[in-house]
Amino acid sequence: MNFKSKAVRTLAAAGLILTMGTGVAFASIGSATVTADSLRLRSEANTNSSTITQAPKGSDVTVEEDAGNGWYKVTYSGKTGYMSSEWLTVSLADGTVLPAAQGIEPEQKRGLVTASVLNVRSGPATTYDKVSTLKGGMVVDIVSDPGNGWYQVESGYVSAEYVTLVDANYEGSSALGASAAAMAKQLLGKRYVSGGAGPNGFDCSGLMYYIYRQLGHPIARGSSSQYYNSGYFVSTSAMQPGDLIFFFDRRFDSSGGTLPTTHVGMYVGDGQFIHASTTSYRVQYDSIYGYYAPYIVGAKRIG
Questions:
Q1: Strand 79-84 vs strand 71-76: parallel, antiparallel, or unpaired?
Q2: Which pLDDT belongs to residue 51?
Q3: Which of 79, 172, 239, 258 is the most buried (most CB within 10 A)?
Q4: Distances in Å between the alpha carbon of 159 and those of 95, 117, 134, 188?
Q5: Is the pLDDT at 292 greater than 80, yes or no?
Q6: Where in the chain are all domains bearing CATH 3.90.1720.10?
Q7: Has domain 3-98 been given CATH number 2.30.40.10?
Q8: If you write DSSP's letter for every residue of 129-168 in order, what string do you get?
Q9: Which pLDDT belongs to residue 107?
């Protein structure tokens, strides 16, 4: 049985339907309760429209009318818009309860801005007018993904090249680190150059120095200087993307044991780090487990 047709028949029996056409108008519905963890109140009855606000699970809303196609026009917290009927349990004035269909709320995509400044345009191409800008490290809701190298955000369109998708619950508490990790990935394959600090060649500390300087957070130069003077120490069991991970291997120690490190890389998640490798002579991924595990001496977070 179709949820909507069942709801319409129930409302008709209760004498609450005034008119029927493309949608259904109600004389008085009563309240509805949100059953999703978080349900968006949108400006129009579709998932491509902008978000007015969000209602957490258990919130009460007032249903104004059935907008058709699985959407209700509702009022929540003094604001009127549209919510998916699949995630609303409606309580009618006569005591009848219409349970939520328990459908799947469309996956909400969020993106982290990895450019220093990202232009927002009125349409999905550089030929459209610039309407605003976003700062590096900001996390934005992605309204739609046209699939043409652009994302629609609430203020317009941005190039997907400079936006990294993040978890829907990501709030940007480690925005700087996530931006650094995203930039490190863009530098994969660059040459190892002794003393190099970019943009086309790097040594290990030069890669870290270049990335954080580009993000507006200059750090020390040299792995041991970064170990002593940049950021703050965190447990290696609690590393987040963007954290610096330090190594000491006496085979590569030219200081006679007076310096704490011989190498540095950047943790990027999933047990991997990116570094300017002195053995492969390029910027590459490696695992923090296996070969490198015995040489780890610490980790630091920048910012």
A1: antiparallel
A2: 78
A3: 239
A4: 50, 12, 11, 21
A5: yes
A6: 177-301
A7: no
A8: PEEEEEETT-EEEEEE--SSSEEEETTEEEEGGGEEEE-T
A9: 54
Q: List every span in the chain annotated with CATH 2.30.30.40.
A: 3-98, 109-172
Check residue 14 and report its DSSP letter: T
Q: What is the pLDDT of residues 100-133, one digit of tens each?
A: 665 444 456 777 777 768 899 999 999 999 999 8
Count the Cβ atoms, other than its own, within 10 Å of residue 27. Answer: 11
**pLDDT tens-place string over residues 244-270:** 999 999 999 988 889 999 999 999 887
Percent with pLDDT over 70 in the chain: 83
- Structural tokens at position 66: 């059935």
Asked whether 264 and 227 are in contact (CB, 8 A), the reply is yes
Cα–Cα distance between 240 and 177 in angstroms, integer?
7
The verdict on domain 109-172 having CATH code 2.30.30.40 is yes
- Would you say the pTM of this structure is higher than 0.85? no
Q: Are 275 and 265 in contact (CB under 8 A)?
A: yes
pLDDT digits (tens, 9 = 90+) for 198-231: 899 999 999 999 999 999 899 999 999 999 999 9
88 exposed, middle or buried (CB, 10 Å; 0-12, 13-18, 19+)?
buried
Report the CATH fold assignment for 177-301: endopeptidase fold (from Nostoc punctiforme) (3.90.1720)
Q: Compute, in degrees rounded to 10, the torsion defined by CA atoms 224, 230, 235, 237.
A: -80
Map tokens 């190594």 to a residue.
Answer: 247
pLDDT beyond 70 at 178 = yes
